[in-house]
Amino acid sequence: MLRVRSIWNGAISFGLVSIPIKLVNATESHSISFRQIHLEDGGRIRYRKVCELEDKEVSGAEIGKGYEDADGTIVPITDEDLAHLPLPTAKTIEIVAFVPADSIDPLQMDAAYYLAAGGAPAAKPYTLLREALKRSNKVAIAKYALRGRERLGMLRVVEDAIAMHGLLWPDEVRAPEGVAPDAKVNINDKELDLADALMDTLGGIDLDELHDEYREALEEVVAAKAAGETPPESPEPAKGGKVLDLMAALEKSVKAAKESRGEEDAEVTHLPARKSARTAPKQTAGKKSTSTAKKTTAKKSTASTSAKKTTAKSTQGARKTASKTTTAKETTAKKTAAKKTTSRKRTA
């Protein structure tokens, strides 16, 4: 049994079966609330309920309900008036239908409650309804009255308990008119493939691992201020750049997601085109590689030929230089021999 104060006592009407129950809140708020204070002296700012006719403060016992008409006239409404409303759901959660769970629009979901069995006599019919909901894979649609108005609810099984989600009436949900972009946008297959890759990389998550980081940071600030210390400075948020290229942004997102998961290969791999309604590109990566290889080989051949020509020219130049040197030496030798012969003749 939940040790939480019930906010409503009544019964579930299941055909001719009546199940006494207690309505208990299924959720709780952990948000930090603040008080309004006077900045000059830190005094609390309080709201007082004052009668505008007598200009005096009144107590809760003196306050009732009233409906303001279009002309400003106040029509008093008493608790007795509300108790005599012709509502069969005043103290009853009346099940009106059983439908598949996916037929309920999540936009209609409101507050959540647990329905606790009201005593030992309620155990048998409570368990019967719970097991019937389990076996049918359906949810129950019910009407009930709470806080002065009739409401719509959905009953479903949560572990071994029956939970009820308050539902908005269909006419309370606005249509999404004017929300979607007016401009015509074309999304190509590569962008969809990258978006799919990003979703696959991010994968799923256990919701129990998520927590309110803002509340934790706020608690640190409150604790530091209470201790007379300087509150910790928060890191500057990353500046969001202007997205100029959607493909580039998707590729970077996939790479960042892989790196955050510690994957060794953080390179973005383009997904192959899907067979359904996807056309293959005119030129494959293999052809591009072959063409590039051919161009590279041609460049190497040209460079080799140029090198050979340069070497041949150098060799010919060297041969000419050597020939000239040899000829010059022979000429010098002949001149020297002639000089020696002339000198001998004169001496004789």
UniProtKB/TrEMBL annotation:
Residues 336-348 have a biased composition (Basic residues). GO terms for molecular function: double-stranded DNA binding. The keyword DNA-binding applies. Residues 282-330 have a biased composition (Low complexity). InterPro entries: DNA_bd_Ku70/Ku80, Prok_Ku, SPOC-like_C_dom_sf. It comes from the Bacteria. With LigD forms a non-homologous end joining (NHEJ) DNA repair enzyme, which repairs dsDNA breaks with reduced fidelity. Binds linear dsDNA with 5'- and 3'- overhangs but not closed circular dsDNA nor ssDNA. Recruits and stimulates the ligase activity of LigD. This is Non-homologous end joining protein Ku.
